[in-house]
Amino acid sequence: MVISLFGSCGKKNTGNTNENPIDIDFWEVTRTSMKVETKYPATLEGTVNVNIRTQVTGYLQEIYVKEGDYVQKGAKLFRVKPDVFIEQVNNSKAAYDVALAAEQSAKIELAKVKPLVEGKVYTELQLQTATANYEAAKATTAQAKAILESSRINADFSLITAPVSGYIGRIPNRAGNLISPSDSQPLTMLSEIDNIYAYFSLSEADFISFFNDRKKSENEYSSVEMVMANGSLYEQKGKLEIASGNIDRTTGSIALKAVFPNPDKLLRAGGSGKIILSKDLDNIIAIPVSCVKDIQDKFFVFVLQDNKVKMKTIEIESRSGNFYIVKSGIENNEKLVLNRIDVLKEDMPVSATAVKNLNNQ
């Protein structure tokens, strides 16, 4: 709905006194239909956002990617200097070899003792001792093998690869920096942005209205639009989803998300925008914002009665652009003053001119 105001809004009435009526324009209120749009701030995230961190402590030796690069899953990202981990593997391998040799020696000893016990040369206690030594040697070997595998895993962790495909974010570290798993900042963030999630919140009251409107019409909010950070409308339409099942007690709001296709990779994780929720309203009273006087969070308008103006309190339901949707206080066919409301007072005489072309288009 487009409403155009024409008339004597620009008239000047100089030299008015309390006895002289003030020139005003008025419009006879009629119920109408209009499309109401509400905008909500949104934060953008990729469908996958992964913080890349090191799992070992060491000096950053190589950085294989640049900020903003697109990488495939498994691609090399960073290398921690591996010397210390290679030596740990070598030491663990040597300890494992020693444990294997000790196990073999204990096994041979056990094999030698068994026939001697059967021949009554060794006692049963000596057999039990040889058996226990063999079992201990096997346990030591298993422990040494586990340490070896752990050191190999740590050595593998010195090469950091991409767990998913996506775009590389900021890289705060440089080659030579000491990094560790406890660092507050990740090495980088990896984002998959073929689709973008736009997260925003509705108040509990707005959510109830939204939910009821959605129940009435399957097409209501089936697709949404977004204004990008530069103020332009994003060309792709999004699909609305509920992102949380609960009302946040601290904020009294519930999180929703809109999923937007991002074929040109124009939208990026960490960005911002405004989600536009729109709905069609029928049989409503919509009045220009300029007609309304706001006094201590209460809203007033002037209506024309017998060439005088009367101030009325109104209740606003919502706002759409330059128009208020009136909940109560104004009746159909009332004559609403359109201009000079700042100089009007209760029962002030006026010279009224009707505006005929306040039309819905």
Protein model, in words:
The structure is a single chain. With 361 residues, the protein is an alpha+beta fold. The protein folds into 4 domains: 22-31 and 285-354, conserved putative lor/sdh protein from methanococcus maripaludis s2 fold, CATH 2.40.420; 39-46 and 193-278, Beta Barrel (Elongation Factor Tu (Ef-tu), domain 3), CATH 2.40.30.170; 49-75 and 163-189, RNA polymerase II/Efflux pump adaptor protein, barrel-sandwich hybrid domain (OB fold (Dihydrolipoamide Acetyltransferase, E2P), Beta Barrel); 83-157, Orthogonal Bundle (Helix Hairpins). The chain has 3 helices and 20 strands. It has helices at 83-118, 124-157, 204-216; strands spanning 22-28, 32-52, 58-63, 70-71, 76-80, 159-161, 166-168, 178-179, 188-203, 225-228, 239-242, 253-261, 272-284, 286-288, 293-295, 298-305, 308-320, 323-328, 335-337, 350-354. Strands 2, 4, 7, 9, 10, 11, 12 and 13 form an 8-stranded antiparallel beta sheet that branches. A 5-stranded antiparallel beta sheet has the order 14-18-17-16-15, with no helix packed on it. A 4-stranded antiparallel beta sheet has the order 6-5-3-8. The longest helix is centred in the first third of the chain and has 36 residues, at 83-118. The chain is elongated.
- Classify the secondary structure makeup into a structural class: alpha+beta
Name the overall outline: elongated
- Beta-strand content estimate: 35-45%
Main pleated sheet: 8 strands, antiparallel
Query: What is the CA-CA span between the terminal residues?
Result: 6 Å
Helical residue percent band:
10-25%
Mean pLDDT score: 86
